[in-house]
Known about the structure:
Elements: H1 3-8, H2 29-37, H3 41-45, H4 48-61, E1 66-68, H5 75-79, E2 84-87, E3 91-94, H6 99-103, H7 107-125, E4 134-140, H8 142-151, H9 169-189, E5 194-198, H10 210-227, E6 231-235, H11 242-249, E7 253-256, H12 262-268, E8 273-275, H13 286-299, E9 305-306, H14 319-331
Parallel strand pairs: 1-4, 4-5, 5-6, 6-7, 7-8, 8-9
Antiparallel strand pairs: 2-3
Amino acid sequence: xxxLIDCINNKSVSSIPxxxxxxxxxxxxxxxxxxxxxxxxxxxxxxxxxxxxITLQPLNRFNIxxxxxxxxILLIPFALxxxxxxxxxxxxxxxxxxxxNIIDVKNDEITKKLQPxxxxxxxxxxxxxMKNKDLIGFIGATWTLLVYMLNQKSPKKxxxxxxxxxxxxxxxxxxxxxxxxxxxxxxxxxxxxxxxxFDSWAGLLEINKYNKYIYExxxxxxEYTKSLGKNVICFPRGIKNYKEYCKFVKxxxxxxxxxxxxxxxxxxxxxxxxxxxxxxxxxxxxxNLKKEAKRYLDIFKDHPYxxxxxxxxxxxxxxxxxxxxxxxxxxx
Length: 332
Ligand code: 1CP
């Protein structure tokens, strides 16, 4: 078994497992090099040879325990027939959502469109560099996908639609869940050893709506992943009550964001914990980085803990700082 899976299973580990959200891409010059020659981001995600190279890039540099596939959560709306492109300095732009059509999309059509992702997983999981390492497959959570699909762009810029009064909303949610299950299963069959569910916009939802839009759909996906014999890590970024989330959703491990107090988490949550440190710390200096990383390591020293950040590595991060951070964790 790998250190990551041993940690999730509450077994003793020889060192603290470490990997980073958004470790493949953006801040790495070798990624930017490939990216500059591949202007169409969706096409790049659907090129298994190049996606494999990008997936392995952080492993070539750092002593980390897992690779996360180079892909995107928005490939699910794409597979459901919604247009998708990425605009420089703006982010994703999705086409108009025709839910009547989406609800009728056949499962075969979805897996056919996403076959390059499954090939990427096959190629990567069989690479010698993956020996004793985990390959993390992922999906966006139902709520986060719903937000992008209806808003047609990042909600960071604001939510301009009335999500809760959208016609056919329940049918659309069910179709998203069904598609997520297919995508989880195919990723596992193709070599993913762990699944992570990114609910990047959980923090935008009012608490009285958590049950229907976050807890219930995520619980279905967690139970489903576990039924396939794999662990599932959930990252409900910005959620107000991690303890309640864990009680309802029951993930194998919970990834925490950087706004939540790690002391509170260590006190109140007894499942394996991942992440927490603010990615901005990597933009400061080594001394500060060491101090802050040690703070998280100390707080979680008596807990199954996977070192990671409280959100993705920022594009302006210096890769030598990431290397230094991995050494701090591994020497701890
Ligand atoms: O222009 C570029 O070079 C593209 C930048 C980029 C990259 C490298 C995007 C566009 N997506 C990705 C890859 C990606 N996306 C990965 C694999 C690499 C890795 O993690 O190491 C993963 C796991 C994602 C997941 C993802 N995509 C999330 C969830 C995680 C998070 O950061 O919260 C989200 C919200 C997206 C949507 C997305 N993809 C890309 C952009 C610019 C956005 C929008 C973000 C926003 O709304 O602010």
